[in-house]
């Protein structure tokens, strides 16, 4: 009996699979229902961002950063703009800094809501998805009011933000924050502590802290593995050092460190923290200009720069090499989803097929950013 | 055995908690917009309209365009095609109109009475619109002012390929006369890609224009020097991009 062996099978998951969150193909090597190996194939959404950026002036690149991580486009705009500003050593007006934090945190909530909604859907619960979209709609509504677009904002600019925000629009945010916090508790009742959901996620797909660090996993995925690291706290950019907030820790009472449930739950905690930051932003926001005084043509000095920011998915870094002209010589993006995806193979070994969707969903990847 | 039943109990009870939340929703008004039927997004209690500054289809007031090509230069996907030529000697076109855009994205077009492109804090911006109504706003609420400009070029071609446009809005922000703007139209899909190439210029409007004798001399000089300046500027820009 001992030397009876089942035949290994290769199974293609994707590129068109509802739970791969975009066009991702995974080649699974299976022994029955056990996954021996999972090899992700990426690149279906490759749009040549880095090469393209070399042929564009700096302000023209910003709309393209929208299309990297299209779920959190504000954070991508911000990441690119602070990089260029670091190279130019530009002083940003106070109001613009606060507006940047405002839109970045709102977009973080919107992004985590989407992660929460689609994760519920992956796990077979359709209702949370509709709830998440109902709340996300308010955020998109606000974004539409301040910049005119619902998904690809092009709002954060080098030197400030594109348009000023009226008091009426800020009231929209205030109203949203009031309604939102109770909703998060509702979500927790609805999905997070649901027995069936717990059974499918607790202890599944564990990513150890050592493995997470060695793969360069960042953001909520890293924090879920028990590593306390948040660039907003540890390496503050913009005006993040003025706000009080906590970096959420993995919950070991219900879940295990680094499992799917904790990766999911960290995002729920982070939404609450973002609400805290937003309240402080609304209280402290000063009046004033929203654009720094500078020349119309943006020409950073010769040199190179690397700057990283915390997007909802982790550490987004941009490397820019400038030769003093109005176009960069080289732009490199360091994508948080790509590193999360590279750890996927390690996580998924030995799991069941059905757990693969749980792992992909909990990593919260956006293929637009992985492929660039 | 006990654990087995406890498990079933836990699963059912947490589902009931979820059910309670969904049941509460029955008494809330519906947030769903019956999209193709509620076409105009009319404002109801829980359905909002489209916001004023929405970035939809591009539109241009041709009578205000001075042909500076700034929009075509900044467009990241190069989907604006402009061809201009010099006006025949002595022909003058009407000046462009001033535009004031407030921070809440209200736009006034007409004749600027007070205020300048450089917005000084603590002043007022005043404008008489085309119907003769007066508009006034403290400069804190003003986002953008463009003054009236001279038109010295004929626009032979002004095409925008909306199938390439990515609605970034950069072109509308740099426009010297704010004549290029984005409307709230967002439904203009067609079966045919070529029909998304919008032609705005109408060269026929320049036919039949006769030189205005009285203004010939003054215009002439200004025209020539302006043309030289523009050429030099364009050459500089070309060198930069090369
Ligand atoms: S809105 Fe369209 S036409 Fe205007 S700059 Fe952007 S891509 Fe070009
Ligand atoms: S920037 Fe404005 S004025 Fe200049 S060519 Fe374009 S539309 Fe005309």
List the helices and strands and how they pair.
The complex is a heterodimer of chains A (372) and B (242).
Chain A lengths: L8 E5 L11 E7 L2 E8 L7 H5 L4 H9 L6 H16 L5 H29 L4 H21 L8 E2 L2 E2 L5 H26 L2 H7 L7 H7 L4 H5 L6 H4 L25 H25 L18 E9 L2 E9 L7 E5 L1 H13 L4 H11 L3 H5 L1
Helix pairs in contact in A: 2-3, 3-4, 4-5, 4-11, 4-13, 5-6, 6-11, 11-13, 12-13
Chain B lengths: L1 H23 L33 E3 L9 H5 L5 E7 L11 E5 L4 E8 L9 E6 L4 E5 L3 E5 L6 E9 L8 H5 L5 E3 L14 E3 L16 H26 L1
Antiparallel strand pairs in B: 1-9, 2-8, 3-4, 3-7, 4-5, 5-6, 8-10
The complex binds iron/sulfur cluster (2 copies).
One iron/sulfur cluster (SF4) binds next to helix 2 of chain B.
Number of strands of chain B: 10
The overall average pLDDT of chain B, rounded, is 76
Order of helices and strands of chain A: EEEHHHHHEEHHHHHHEEEHHH
State mean pLDDT of chain A (0 to 100 scale).
85
Order of the strands making up the biggest sheet of chain A: 1-2-3
Number of domains of chain A: 1
Q: Which parts of chain B are unreliable, with pLDDT below 50 for 5 consecutive residues or more?
A: 213-225
- Specify the CATH architecture of chain A: Orthogonal Bundle
In words, what does this structure look like?
The complex is a heterodimer of chains A (about 375) and B (about 240). Chain A is α+β, with helices and mostly antiparallel strands. Chain A has a single domain (about 55-370), classed as Cytochrome-c3 Hydrogenase, chain B (Orthogonal Bundle), CATH 1.10.645.10. Chain A is built from 14 helices and eight strands. Chain A has helices at about 50-55, 60-65, 75-90, 95-120, 125-145, 165-190, 195-200, 210-215, 220-225, 230-235, 260-285, 335-350, 355-365, 365-370, and strands at about 10-15, 25-30, 35-40, 155, 160, 305-310, 315-320, 330-335. In chain A, the strands form three sheets. A three-stranded antiparallel β-sheet of chain A has the order 1-2-3. In chain A, strand 2 (about 25-30) and strand 3 (about 35-40) form a beta hairpin. The longest helix of chain A has 29 residues, at about 95-120. Chain A starts with 8 loop residues before the first strand and ends with a helix. The model of chain A has no long low-confidence stretch (mean pLDDT about 85). Chain B has about 240 residues and is of the alpha+beta class. Chain B has a domain at about 100-150. Helix content of chain B is about 25%, strand content about 20%. In chain B, the strands form three sheets. Chain B has a five-stranded antiparallel β-sheet, with no helix packed on it. The longest helix of chain B is centred in the last third of the chain and has 26 residues, at about 215-240. The N and C termini of chain B lie far apart (about 80 Å). Mean pLDDT of chain B is about 75; it is low at about 215-225. The interface between A and B is medium-sized, with 37 and 32 residues. One iron/sulfur cluster binds next to helix 3 of chain B.
């Amino acid at each position: 009996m001992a030397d009876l062996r089942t035949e290994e099978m290769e199974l293609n998951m994707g590129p068109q699979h509802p739970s791969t969150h975009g066009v991702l193909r995974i080649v699974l090597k299976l022994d029955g229902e056990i996954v021996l190996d999972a090899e992700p194939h990426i690149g279906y959404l490759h749009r040549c961002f880095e090469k393209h950026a070399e042929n564009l002036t700096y302000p023209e690149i910003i709309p393209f950063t929208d299309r990297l991580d299209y779920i959190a486009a504000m954070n991508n705009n911000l990441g690119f703009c602070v990089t260029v500003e670091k190279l130019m050593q530009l002083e940003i007006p106070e109001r613009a800094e606060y507006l940047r934090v405002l839109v970045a945190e709102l977009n973080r909530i919107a992004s985590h809501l989407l992660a929460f909604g689609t994760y519920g859907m992956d796990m077979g619960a359709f209702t949370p998805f509709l709830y998440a979209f109902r709340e996300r709609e308010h955020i998109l509504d606000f974004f539409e009011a301040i910049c005119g677009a619902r998904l690809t904002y092009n709002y954060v600019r080098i030197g400030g933000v594109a348009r000023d925000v009226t008091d009426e629009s800020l009231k929209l945010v205030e109203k949203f924050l009031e309604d939102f916090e109770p909703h998060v508790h509702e979500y927790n009742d609805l999905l997070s502590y649901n027995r069936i959901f717990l059974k499918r996620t607790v202890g599944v797909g564990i990513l150890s802290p050592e493995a997470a660090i060695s793969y360069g996993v960042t953001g909520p995925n890293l924090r879920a593995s028990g590593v306390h690291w948040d660039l907003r706290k540890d390496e503050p950019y913009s005006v993040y050092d003025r706000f009080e907030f906590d970096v959420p820790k993995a919950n070991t009472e219900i879940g295990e460190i680094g499992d799917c449930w904790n990766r999911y739950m960290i995002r729920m905690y982070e939404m609450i923290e973002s609400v805290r930051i937003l309240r402080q932003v609304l209280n402290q926001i000063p009046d004033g200009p929203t654009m720094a005084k500078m020349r119309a043509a943006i020409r950073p000095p010769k040199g190179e720069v690397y700057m990283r920011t915390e997007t909802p998915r982790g550490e987004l870094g941009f490397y820019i090499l400038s030769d003093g002209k109005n176009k960069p010589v080289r732009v490199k993006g360091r994508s948080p989803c790509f590193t999360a995806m590279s750890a996927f193979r390690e996580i998924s070994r030995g799991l069941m097929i059905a757990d693969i969707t749980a792992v992909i969903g909990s990593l919260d990847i956006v293929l637009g950013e992985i492929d660039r | 055995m006990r654990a087995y039943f406890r498990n079933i109990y836990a699963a059912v009870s947490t589902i009931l908690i979820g059910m309670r939340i969904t049941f509460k929703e029955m008494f809330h008004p519906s947030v769903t917009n019956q999209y193709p039927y509620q076409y105009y997004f009319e404002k109801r209690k829980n359905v909002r309209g489209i916001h004023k500054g929405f970035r939809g289809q591009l539109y241009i007031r041709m009578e205000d365009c001075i042909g500076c090509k700034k929009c075509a230069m900044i467009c990241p996907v190069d989907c604006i095609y402009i061809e201009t030529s010099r006006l025949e000697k002595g022909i003058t076109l009407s000046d462009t109109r001033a535009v004031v855009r407030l921070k809440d994205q209200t736009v006034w077009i007409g004749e600027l009475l007070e205020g300048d492109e450089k917005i000084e804090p603590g002043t007022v911006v005043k404008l008489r619109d085309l119907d003769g109504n007066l508009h006034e706003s403290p400069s804190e609420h003003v986002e953008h002012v463009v003054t009236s400009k001279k038109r010295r070029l004929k626009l032979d071609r002004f095409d925008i390929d909306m199938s390439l446009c990515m609605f970034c809005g950069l072109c509308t922000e740099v426009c010297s006369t704010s004549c290029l703007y984005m409307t709230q139209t967002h439904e203009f899909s067609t079966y045919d890609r070529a029909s998304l190439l919008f032609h705005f210029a109408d060269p026929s409007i320049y036919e039949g224009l006769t030189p205005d004798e009285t203004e010939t001399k003054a215009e002439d000089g200004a025209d020539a020097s302006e043309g030289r300046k523009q050429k030099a500027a364009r050459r500089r820009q070309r060198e930069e991009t090369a």
